[in-house]
UniProtKB/TrEMBL annotation:
The keyword Glycoprotein does not apply. This is Endoglucanase. Residues 151-607 form the Glycoside hydrolase family domain. The keyword Nuclease does not apply. InterPro entries: 6-hairpin_glycosidase_sf, 6hp_glycosidase-like_sf, Cellulase_Ig-like, Glyco_hydro_9, Glyco_hydro_9_Asp/Glu_AS, Glyco_hydro_9_His_AS, Ig-like_fold, Ig_E-set. Its EC number is 3.2.1.4. It catalyses: Endohydrolysis of (1->4)-beta-D-glucosidic linkages in cellulose, lichenin and cereal beta-D-glucans. It comes from Dactylosporangium vinaceum.
Length: 615
């Protein structure tokens, strides 16, 4: 994605590091495991306490999914080798016994990594167990499991990531051991918090709003409606995809055990915040949503949320934010209706009001220049947000006005899967829900076929990649490439739900291999998952690399991943000239390759929940 000023705003973080370091709350240090396998259950203690991970893992040319493969699923590895001839391989169990053998397929030069490669396919082996290794031409892979439950814990951890991201509430160490902290940005914090936030001077509003709650967006402590919208939507969508599985998935959050499924309880924390960002009745822009709230200036690394001294400010309303609110609230209205009818009605009113306000103010764009103290999240094309919001309102209400808005949009017949969807390109969210959630759309079969066609294209892309990722941009890897890969996999997964064809299920499983280690760097991009896993993501409070008293990010946190633009100084100096797949470093200061964000973890949560259900 193209984010020029937003990327520039991230540079300010580097300068902010030189500012005096804030005093953190009491936090128990946490170290992370080498692999996921063998975890005892989903209890809070077992989810956080692990043996120390070595700082340096010996590299190997044999690249595998370091977590594991499903016994009945595809099992492929990539080998870096200049050999033009096939290489002999052996699959060994944890006793060193050879259980399968064969020869590799030479694939030649992989353009995205610049590496000469072979592919090993050991899918025919259907055994199960722990700590397998793949040996190719005398070199061994890192260990992995063959386990039908390989992804169950990941689906829990990826979703439990959101609880420690909560703003406005103390994080309970009994629920998230090692991550206890005081409530951030409440009225009694040094900056007065988010309970009475004024607008940025010059924006024309003379009121304050209580915008407490919600999730901190990323490595900073801002809260952005356009990023919160896609994040909460994907959490609700994974619930809608499989309500029964979602109800059985026990997350680490205070509301666990209530009548509302855990994933929806977490989603409600963000939905409540989004509705608070709506301009009050009686004001000139009533019904619109403020684009974001964050500090007046960039804070240092590390900064505990409860110690933040910067003034918080509401930024001007935008059409994009307003439509994000409309879409997310409309979806929330239908998923919460079985559990809390009054809350569902409140959300639907907010959605209707926001959509009407956006129609009245269709060109209020957030500028790329608004990047002091927080990301700009600029967007001057909101046709996709109009399409998404109309789709969600139509699915929820069935009303003609929203259906007409969907079918009259130029995007309704456009190929919305030509590029990965993200916070700035949201039409695919509407298309996926129109295809999968019951509704009376007249051309719904064509809509469903468009999802299948998009998935077929992603499978074709995967087949042409030595590392099997559904991603081959012509201009290099983008910021947040890992999330873009996962969102492409969500399209493939939806095609499986629509058709039941195994090739789509297998495509999703193969695509996850890239995220978990089968890539040019032999790097798992999920904290706590794999021998060589990311653990120093850019964050102001998960900052163990800067302060040993602080923790690394929680288990199940996705790193942004390779980014060819290398906007930060650390990556720019260390990786200049890198091939796209190699433009990554696990360093807290590499915010352009190694940040964490709520929308990236939402994509991980969606896909990991899908694969966890494939047992």
């Amino acid at each position: 994605m193209h984010l020029p000023a937003f990327m520039q705003s991230r540079r300010a973080r580097l300068a902010a590091v030189a500012v005096a370091v804030a005093v953190p709350a009491v936090v128990v240090p946490v170290v992370f495991s080498t692999r996921e396998s063998g975890l005892p259950g989903t209890s809070a203690d077992s989810a956080y306490a692990f043996p120390a991970t070595p700082d340096h893992i010996p590299d190997t040319p044999v690249r595998v999914n370091q977590v594991g493969y499903l016994p009945d699923g595809p099992k492929r590895a990539t080998v870096v080798s200049d050999s033009a001839r096939p290489l002999a391989w052996q699959l060994k169990d944890n006793a060193g016994k050879v259980v399968a053998a064969g020869e590799s397929e030479p694939r030649g030069l992989d353009a995205s990594s610049g590496q000469s490669t072979h592919v090993v396919d050991f899918s025919a082996y259907r055994g199960s167990g722990h700590t397998y290794t793949l040996e190719v031409d005398g070199r061994s892979s890192l260990p992995f499991d063959l386990d039908p439950k390989a992804y169950r814990q990941l689906s829990v951890d990826a979703l439990s990531f959101f609880y420690p991201q909560r703003s406005g509430v103390a994080i309970d160490g009994a629920i998230a051991p090692g991550y206890a902290r005081k409530a951030g940005h409440t009225a009694d914090t040094p900056n007065g918090g988010d309970s009475k936030v004024p607008c940025v001077p010059g924006t024309g509003c003379n009121y304050t709003l209580d915008v407490t709650g919600g999730w901190y967006d990323a490595g900073d402590q801002g809260k952005y409606v356009v990023n919160g919208g896609i994040s909460v939507a994907q959490l609700m969508s994974l619930y809608e995809r499989s309500p029964k599985a979602s109800q059985a998935r026990a997350l680490r959050l205070p509301e666990h055990g209530g009548k509302t499924p855990d994933v929806l309880a977490e989603a409600r924390w963000e939905l409540d915040f989004l509705t608070k960002m709506q301009v009050p009745a009686g004001e000139p822009l009533a019904g619109m949503a403020h684009h974001k709230v964050h500090d007046a200036g960039w804070t240092a690394l590390p900064t505990d949320p409860a110690a933040d001294t910067q003034q918080r400010q509401l930024h001007a309303p935008s059409t994009a934010a307003t439509l994000n609110l409309a879409a997310a609230a409309a979806q929330g209205a239908r998923v919460f209706e079985p559990y809390d009818k009054a809350y569902a009605a409140k959300l639907l009113t907010a959605a209707r009001t926001a959509y009407a306000a956006a129609l009245a103010h269709p060109t209020m764009y957030a500028p790329d220049s608004d990047s002091t103290g927080g990301g700009a999240y600029g967007d001057t094309d909101v046709g996709d947000e109009f399409y998404w919001a109309a789709a969600e309102l139509f699915i929820t209400t069935g009303e003609k006005q929203y259906g007409t808005a969907v079918t009259s949009s130029p995007l309704h017949r456009a190929d919305v899967f030509a590029a990965p969807f993200d916070w700035r390109a949201t039409a695919a969210l509407g298309r996926l829900d129109l295809a999968t959630v019951d509704n009376r759309l007249g051309d719904r079969e064509r809509v469903r076929q468009s999802v299948v066609d998009g998935a077929d294209r992603y499978l074709k892309t995967m087949a042409g990649q030595s590392y099997g990722q559904p991603y081959a941009p012509s201009g290099g890897y983008d910021w947040g490439s890992n999330s873009q890969i996962l969102n492409n996999l969500a399209v493939v997964a939806t095609a499986f739900d629509l058709t039941g064809k195994a090739k789509y299920r297998d495509g999703v499983l193969s695509g996850m291999d890239y995220i978990l280690g089968r890539n040019g760097l032999n790097q798992s991009y999920v904290t706590g998952y794999g021998e060589k896993a990311s653990k120093n993501q850019h964050s102001r409070w998960y900052a163990h690399q800067l302060d040993p008293k602080l923790p690394n990010p929680p288990r199940g946190t996705l790193a942004g991943g390779p980014n060819s633009q290398l906007q930060d100084e650390v990556a720019g100096n260390a990786l200049r000239g890198c091939k796209p797949q190699l433009c990554y470093m696990d360093d807290i200061m590499s915010w352009s390759t190694n940040e964490l964000t709520i929308n990236w973890n939402a994509s991980l949560a969606w896909v990991s929940s899908f694969v966890a259900d494939q047992t």
